[in-house]
Amino acid sequence: MVIRAGAVNRGPAAAGDNRRAILAAARRVMAERGYRVPLSTIVREAGVSQGVLYRHFPTRLDLALAVFEDNFTELAAVAADPGPDAFPRLWARLVELTVESSAFVEMVLDARQELPGYRGNARLLELVEATLPRAQEAGSVAAGLTPADVLLAWRMVFGVVVTAADPGDIAPAVARVRALLPLP
């Protein structure tokens, strides 16, 4: 039997690398083609088999939740900054992530229906609640702005992203939404 160089089956030792490859591929492909992209596209991009994908992520939602968790980790790191500029940076990054990966916001919508205990919206609200008062005290954000207002503005940005007929229209429309609101 002839074994090709580089074609060694590493078995369980490859599990961590496979998982990372799947997550990286899912992030890229879902950002480009949306949440409902065929999983076979992600498998090809990751260089793994369909079985490996399902071993790590039994459902599309499981895969998207794992990818989206990276977004929450990043946002939580921004919110952990005790300074008054944490909220403006949190808001800016939230808008960027929404534009970059609207597929994952679609996942949140699915999670609400399929996972009654899903806390994505509550977690986002907690990050805003932790940072907004400091920005208001520093005078960089309007005093009357509420966390609910911020989440409404975020949903407006998401609406622009998912309803734009031409991807070139997204950035100017999001900039206009941001200009209409008393947010940094």
Intertermini distance:
65 Å
Number of strands: 0
How many alpha or pi helices?
Answer: 9
- Largest sheet descriptor: none
The pLDDT mean sits at: 85
Would you kindly provide a written description of the structure presented here, covering whatever features stand out?
The chain is mainly α. It folds into 2 domains: 11-58, Arc Repressor Mutant, subunit A, CATH 1.10.10; 64-180. The chain is 70% helix and 0% strand. It is built from 9 helices and no strands. The chain has helices at 15-33, 39-46, 50-56, 60-79, 86-100, 102-114, 120-138, 147-163, 170-180. Helix 1 (15-33) packs across helix 2 and helix 4 packs across helix 6. It is globular, with a radius of gyration of 19 Å. This is AcrR family transcriptional regulator. GO terms for molecular function: DNA-binding transcription factor activity; transcription cis-regulatory region binding. Residues 38-57 bind DNA. InterPro entries: Homeodomain-like_sf (IPR009057), HTH-type_TetR-like_transc_reg (IPR050109), HTH_TetR (IPR001647), Tet_transcr_reg_TetR-rel_C_sf (IPR036271).
Describe the structure using short key phrases:
0% strand; Arc Repressor Mutant, subunit A; 184 residues; 2 domains; disordered N terminus; mainly alpha; globular
